Amino acid sequence: MSGFNPEANRIAYGASKAAVNYLIESLAEECRSKKIGVTGIAPYILDTPANREWGKEEDYEKWHKPGEIGEIIHFIFSNYHYLSGNIISLKIRFSR
Known about the structure:
Elements: H1 11-31, E1 40-42, H2 49-54, H3 66-78, H4 80-83, E2 87-89
Parallel strand pairs: 1-2
């Protein structure tokens, strides 16, 4: 998400994320004639042990579970022909 939303004191981090976004969009254009899809996922926060070390327990339910990201990746692979060039931005996850 940092590639889309500039923040003070995070210039290098945000610029590197914005560069990845540009790379995804550019590769999708270059690979279109070869029928190769290029799509990115920009999650809010992934629920991982490392992220739980700094996060707040009351926020864990809002974070995206790795398995959910896997489901999205499967969908992208199944539908590459019309998703290529997109960066799928995931916002805060709603509790089920």
